[in-house]
Design brief:
single chain, transport
C-alpha cells in the first residue's frame, strides 16, 4: 500500500501541471476565491447592510496578502488575483458605504425602494388578473367538455 502511494505521488510530482494542481499553491487561493466572489455579488445589494468596519478590515487584509502573494517563492499569481479582486470589490463596497451614510445616499435609496415597491405592486395586480382570467377560462373549458 505504501509503495502504491509513493508511486502515485512520484507520478504526480514528475508532471509540473499535476504537481501545481495538487499543491497548496493552487488549492489555497482556489478555496479562498469564495470571499471575492461574495464581495462582488454583494455590490448589487442594498448599501444599508454594508459594515464599514468589516469592509475596511477586508480591504487591509486583501492589500496585505496581495503583497504576500508576490513575496513568496515562487510567486503565487493565483493568490494575488484572488486578493486583487477582493481588494477592488471591498473598495467599491467602502465607497458605497460612505456614499450611503455620508453623501445623501439614503434619500436616493429610499426613492429606489419606493419605485421597486410600486413595480412589485403592479406585478402582483397583473398576476391576480391573470389568475382570474385563467380560472374563468378553465371553467368555460369544463362547461364545454361536459
Amino acid at each position: 500500500m505504501a509503495a502504491t502511494v509513493k508511486a502515485i505521488n512520484a507520478k504526480i510530482r514528475s508532471n509540473k501541471v499535476l504537481d501545481y494542481f495538487c499543491s497548496t499553491h493552487f488549492w489555497g487561493p482556489a478555496s479562498n476565491f469564495g470571499i471575492p466572489i461574495a464581495a462582488v455579488l454583494d455590490t448589487q445589494k442594498d448599501p444599508e447592510i454594508i459594515s464599514g468596519t468589516f469592509t475596511a478590515a477586508l480591504t487591509v487584509y486583501s492589500g496585505t496578502f496581495m503583497r504576500y502573494a508576490l513575496a513568496v517563492q515562487p510567486k503565487n499569481y493565483l493568490l494575488f488575483a484572488c486578493h486583487f479582486v477582493n481588494f477592488n470589490a471591498q473598495l467599491t463596497q467602502g465607497y458605497r458605504w460612505y456614499d450611503y451614510w455620508y453623501r445623501g445616499g439614503q434619500d436616493r435609496w429610499a426613492k429606489i425602494r419606493a419605485e421597486a415597491a410600486k413595480v412589485e405592486g403592479k406585478t402582483e395586480s397583473i398576476a391576480e388578473t391573470a389568475k382570474t382570467k385563467v380560472a374563468g377560462a378553465v371553467e368555460e373549458a369544463k362547461k364545454t367538455v361536459s
